[in-house]
Design a protein that fits this description.
- There is one protein chain.
- The chain has 8 helices and 12 strands.
- The chain is an alpha/beta fold.
- A hairpin with a 2-residue loop joins strand 8 and strand 9.
- Helix 6 packs across helix 7.
Length: 229
């Protein structure tokens, strides 16, 4: 499990690196956004931990450079209580976030949850080899690939996981908590908007139904429902 840790707080970086290394991760460090984006695009890392507040090039700028050509999972470190940064990070392609100051133990757990989701193609079973076909949608869980009318969907790792959960329950209402548990690997916090932001992004990438409705319907106070059209 190769982690790229990008943060200009060298003391915090050392603390997190030491903990993650003891926990079985291989950790590479970068201390600004430019260096971090270059390292992330090298293809040598399984996941990137990216701080928002950095000199020269902040986390959002670094993520934009990474997302232009790479779908490597990104976990952002955001200021505690700054909901704006969290939402903005998710909207720009982050897979999840952890507020600072963070517990290294929580960070390790979040990293493992994301890597477990994206690592399915190392432990395939028969069902994963079969695509999920829903009218115009086709989803290949083993390859983590999805198409809409044969058009490839450019999804982040977490967006794919959310769409896969909805697809496996097509036509049924899936609660936000179920989506968070199954797609993010954690319970949904009381004020956590992560699922809403991911759904919004997926909607923008999916075409509308023939009657112009969204493919993903909001069922007030219950959750979301995927319609195959």
């Amino acid at each position: 499990m190769k982690v790229l840790l990008v943060d200009d707080d060298r003391e915090l970086v050392d603390l997190i690196r030491d903990y993650l290394s003891r926990d079985g991760f291989q950790v590479t460090c970068a201390y600004d956004g430019i260096q971090g984006a270059d390292a992330a695009l090298s293809g040598k890392h399984d996941i990137v931990v990216l701080d928002v507040m950095m000199n020269r090039c902040d986390g959002f700028q670094a993520m934009a450079r990474i997302r232009a050509t790479s779908s490597v999972p990104i976990l952002m470190l955001t200021a505690r209580g700054d909901d704006g940064d969290r939402v903005l990070g998710l909207e720009h392609g982050a897979d999840d976030y952890v507020p600072k100051p963070c517990s290294p133990r929580e960070l390790a757990a979040r990293l493992r949850a994301i890597l477990k989701r994206v690592g399915v193609n190392s432990q395939l079973d028969g069902s994963d080899n079969q695509p999920i076909i829903l009218g115009r949608f086709s989803i290949w869980p083993a390859q983590r690939r999805a198409t809409d009318h044969d058009r490839s969907l450019e999804l982040t790792s977490t967006e794919f996981s959310v769409l896969e959960v909805l697809a496996r329950n097509a036509g049924k209402i899936v609660s936000k908590d179920e989506l968070s548990q199954q797609a993010l690997g954690r319970p949904l916090g009381r004020l956590d908007r992560s699922i809403d932001v991911h759904i919004h992004s997926i909607r923008n990438k999916l075409g509308p139904l023939k009657d112009a409705r969204s493919s993903i319907q909001t069922v007030i106070r219950k959750g979301y429902q995927l319609l195959s059209g």
